[in-house]
């Protein structure tokens, strides 16, 4: 049994209600520090809702949510959010397109979205350049964000999420809109980030098994606002379990350290 100090996330019967609907229901979740987990489920399952609670953006309507030993509702959410890096289309859409790529990365320090709120030091800028180098975009650091391709924006968003040296990194469908080559480059990059940051807890939200980097070994399957499975990837990524998560008949194949799924016709 882990003590609370070893846990990045400890949710007990967490629920989120909006518009009279349960978007998340009785959700128990316990994630160790340094774990790599995947939130897998069909459209509308509640994955993004779960991520909004995990990132300290939304407080649950019921239950108890503890993140990095801080109880939501009793802690300063702004301070907690600085310890969590979030990247995904919800972040990309909010970034002011007139910012340079470097400013976009620096905006992650205080989690702002416009250039006039950025207060950065020379040390921050050096770290931002280092991260842009890591994602292969340092040569574009002076370019306007609005001029980047979707793939490039996703990479900037990852650098932005890492700039505050978070303890938890949350990736919300980071491959959305990417072509095959860009998706594979991203999967490899996420794998490298996982490898180079052993203490970092990383969560990945996806609909697609192909997007799961090998380092991610835990699957949390969601459907209709509830957790349907939670456990080891190799045990759970089978045709019957993935079929249960998505509510359709599927064939799952493992190829090396990666998985693919097709709907059965
Ligand atoms: N504020 C809201 N009020 C009412 N319903 C909402 C609200 N926000 C989301 N929903 C609904 O809650 C359900 C879960 O939404 P959520 O965005 O968490 O799903 P998801 O698993 O991330 O889906 P997708 O894969 O399509 O992004 C959806 O049916 C959505 O329409």
Automatic annotation (TrEMBL):
UniProtKB keywords = ATP-binding, Hydrolase, Nucleotide-binding, Transport
**Listed PROSITE patterns:** ABC_TRANSPORTER_2, MIP
What is an example of a GO molecular function annotated in this UniProt entry?
A: ATP binding
The ABC transporter domain extends over 9-249
Known EC number(s)?
3.6.3.-
The superkingdom of the source organism is Bacteria
In the record, the note on similarity to other proteins reads: Belongs to the ABC transporter superfamily.
Name of the protein: Putative ABC transporter ATP-binding protein YlmA
To which species is this protein native?
Answer: Acidithrix ferrooxidans
Q: What is the lineage of its organism?
A: Bacteria, Bacillati, Actinomycetota, Acidimicrobiia, Acidimicrobiales
Gene name of this polypeptide: ylmA
